[in-house]
Amino acid sequence: MNELILAIESSCDETSVAVIQNGETILSNIVASQIKSHQRFGGVVPEVASRHHVEQITICIEDALTEAKVVPEDLTAVAVTYGPGLVGALLIGLSAAKAFAWAHDLPLLPVNHMAGHIYAARFVKPLVFPLMALLVSGGHTELVYMVEDGSFEIIGETRDDAAGEAYDKVGRVLGLPYPSGKEIDRLAHIGQDTYHFPRAMIHEDNYDFSFSGLKSAFINHVHNAEQRGETLVPNDLAASFQASVVDVLVAKTIRACQSFPVKQLIVAGGVAANQGLREALETAMLDYPEIELLIPPLRLCGDNAAMIGAYAHIALQKQRIGSLDLNADPSVSFMHSQN
Ligand code: KG4
Ligand code: ZN
């Protein structure tokens, strides 16, 4: 078999195009990041993102094909993220994918961005079902139970902010550039959990999360200290914040793994790059040797098209082919078994 999928991702602030062979080998994975353009605004500006995608998309497609040493005639299908994400950003990738598929008479495979994040783990090892996935990104925090390829059941999710969003908001208070997750993670390793922020919902018998209370507690603490003229230690603030996020994520994930007959635990999304979270889960999972912990390498945790190509392989097997009138779906969620 030599299945070659051209995959396109443009849901947020990275334009990315990859060529994936047989759903498991990355022949190329071009990622054009726009972070520098958004930093001065403290977050992603949708109109700026769309404009960058327009400028980058054809270059990325050409680079991905060249690096993979593949010509359009070799390809089996074109895959594209259709949601969730910023509608204007998604539409750029979608239009490029549709035009490419039409011009080269290739099937079009619509991919849910969050399914892509989970399938980034496929580049580490084959997935074994049933499995649990902890999906932690800038827009999502959810526990997803999968009994087979292409079947997603959200068993718990955040009731307010996503974990990555909390990192970015707290980073702003600390005066860090956007996105701040990586830098807070670095500072947290130097500091100590001295401020003991709340661990919201940690003892509740469910799989849901809440991070807005932690964010408020953090901001109030910093403002009160400022008013009193006290100096706080940024490294300890970062460590205390991170300890709270990680404790809750780990506690809920372990509870989910105890309650469902899972063989693997996948950690996915931008926040899966967090060293504190990775280490805490590695330690916690030592008590569950029958469950294999699978975390994608750092370069595949953030948004990229390789992960979209990995899931597209499954979409093709299941013949979940899109039509050329496919539209972006900015707030699509996993219901049971869909793209
Ligand atoms: O998955 P992703 O690249 O984009 C979305 O689909 O949202 O996730 C981006 C998020 C940002 O909020 C960023 O601050 C966070 O992932 N992030 C981290 C780390 N690296 C990136 N959060 C905590 N620790 C990190 N090392
Ligand atoms: Zn993402």
UniProtKB/TrEMBL annotation:
Subcellular location: Cytoplasm
Cofactor note: Binds 1 Fe(2+) ion per subunit.
Swiss-Prot/TrEMBL cofactor(s): Fe(2+)
Keywords for this protein: Acyltransferase, Cytoplasm, Iron, Metal-binding, Transferase, tRNA processing
Record-annotated Gcp-like domain positions: 25-309
Coarse class of the protein's main subcellular location: cytoplasm
One of the GO biological process terms: tRNA threonylcarbamoyladenosine modification
Entry GO MF terms: iron ion binding; tRNA N(6)-L-threonylcarbamoyladenine synthase activity
EC number, as in UniProt: 2.3.1.234
Signal peptide location: none
Reactions performed catalytically: L-threonylcarbamoyladenylate + adenosine(37) in tRNA = N(6)-L-threonylcarbamoyladenosine(37) in tRNA + AMP + H(+)
UniProt: Fe cation binding residues: 113, 117, 303
Enzyme class at the top of the EC tree: transferase
GO (cellular component) term, any one: cytoplasm
Pfam families reported for this sequence: TsaD (PF00814)
Binding-site list for substrate: 135-139, 168, 181, 185, 274
NCBIfam families given in the database record: gcp_kae1, T6A_TsaD_YgjD
Function (record text): Required for the formation of a threonylcarbamoyl group on adenosine at position 37 (t(6)A37) in tRNAs that read codons beginning with adenine. Is involved in the transfer of the threonylcarbamoyl moiety of threonylcarbamoyl-AMP (TC-AMP) to the N6 group of A37, together with TsaE and TsaB. TsaD likely plays a direct catalytic role in this reaction.
The family this protein is said to belong to: Belongs to the KAE1 / TsaD family.
Identification of the protein by name: tRNA N6-adenosine threonylcarbamoyltransferase
Organism field: Candidatus Enterococcus testudinis
